[in-house]
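Supplementary Note 2. Why include the ligand at all?

Several targets in our set were suspected to adopt different conformations when bound, so apo predictions alone were not considered sufficient. For every target with a known small-molecule partner we therefore ran a joint prediction. The input for magnesium ion is given below.
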Amino acid sequence: MRELRGIPVSSGVVIGRVLVLNDPRERVQRRSISAAEIETERARFDKALDASLTDLSRMRTEAEQHLGKEAAAIFAFHQGMLRDRSLVEPIRRRIEDEKVNAEHAVQEQFRVVAEMFASMPDSAFQTKVDDVWDLNHRVIGHLVGSHERDSARSTEGAVVVAKDLTPTQTAMFRGKGVLGFATDSGGPTSHTAIFARALVIPAVVGLERLVENAHDGQTIILDGDRGAIVLDPDDATIARYEQRIADNNELARSLDELRPLPATTTDGTELKLMGNIEFGEEAENVVENGGDGVGLFRTEFLWLTSDHEPTEDEQYEQYKAAVERSAGRPVTFRTFDLGADKYTQERALVPERNPFLGCRSIRYCLQNVAMFRTQLRAILRAGAHGPIRVMFPLIANISELRQARMHLDDVKEDLDADGLPFAREAPVGMMVEVPSAAVMAHAFAKEADFFSIGTNDLVQYTLAVDRTNERVANLYSPAHPAVLRLIKDVIRAGRRAGIDVSLCGEVGGDVTYTMLLIGLGLRTISSTPSRIPHLKKVVRSVDVPECERLARAVGSFDSETQVNAFIRDQVSKNFPGLLDGRTADG
Ligand code: PEP
Ligand code: MG
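The joint prediction is reproduced in token form.
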């Protein structure tokens, strides 16, 4: 039995058998060819290229139908790459110049491109490197016929294990009975994570050494709640996890009943539980899970899954879909939070030394005003179909908020001049995710209509811990008293100014923190839609004074270890089984 830890990116627990997917970087044989064979090899390459393009167009259509336009755009991007002559021509030349087989020429050329991206200092290029290897794998698969072999393997009841899963591979498993995904690399914002969540399949990434330890057919437990996997579990472990699965099912059934009920504490305080979404269609998940609207629409995913800057109309359609699917509940549009780990193709060409401290987010928008205004137009126009809120990310100083608001006002004037209907009175708020904004929240509260605390970034900037670096993951703790003090100050400043304060980082979906957050005065939480029923369960079982007592006790601790131990203990006492099933290992 062997247990490995990674990063949980899509929740749920499953027991299945391992299906190891070939590493797209696997070496292919080099074979020297004679001059007479050059044309044959080139013809083989052309045929494989055509077959790959056909695959991609089929997968694009399927993704469009089942996963949404943005997911499909990833395949459109792959198509674009394969049609790019600067990639394809050197392969044809290599076959002739080096007199080698097509497989080798393909692999070597793709390697050059992948290494070019990998050598860039920005870790964000990893996604692009993965795209290159994905295409390499596809073309070589057609050359050697392994595609057919891969797709002939049964995926029913399998947990797919791979060094990394490319978007095409992940999407390929839709409707094929796959139970889970486990990969050695990747982070919460990787393509695999996005697809896994869209497919509602449990997934753990960043396991580092799973592939070298796993083999086909082996029994595997995948715990997408805690980010763990167990290979060859012993009987006692299987029994424990079976119990977990049964408990989860039971819990899911009991939570189902809560969906239509309000999130009101036992002493009558009403909370708003909202959902975080990446794509417009997901607004439906929020409604289905009994949410009060969209607390965070990460609009940048539209950009990230597209090979071009989304036009105003493309954005408008997406945003309108979110508004319509929310059926009268508010949708909070966060303007493009690009940069750092979320880069666009265009930005890939201008790497930064410290991208998380660089030209990201609102800074990028304020330097690219035309793009920013196009988005603001699309958002405001979508607001003609239902209630919306506009939110600016990574605000660190007051002038950024003022400039952003000024652009919004200008856009309103333009829309008026164009005679287009739009949301004239949409509340305008900001993310509080930089310590400077948290410390100065009282000042920002005078100029923002609402705050949303972004703990994912607030933790990394307060503790100086890169949120995407698994080597310092143990230092990344929202329970750190410094972080909690900032959260408390922001909530208090917002309440004093009479503006709504919500929290939309991952902490929001973690029931360990719910009582503490209520005790600190928070009344709106936005989380992954599937967590809303869990949060509702806690909210409906507690009263505000007991949460305040808990918050006071936590306020006296000096270390995150004490905080963690205390809040976990309280929650496991009050809500056995609700702690993401984290009781399975004691
Ligand atoms: C955050 O930083 O907490 C947040 C919600 O935004 P993102 O995770 O997209 O940076
Ligand atoms: Mg953020």
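The first strand starts at residue 2 and ends at 5. Residues 35-144 form a domain with the Enzyme I; Chain A, domain 2 fold (CATH 1.10.274.10). Comparable summaries for the other entries are listed in the accompanying table.
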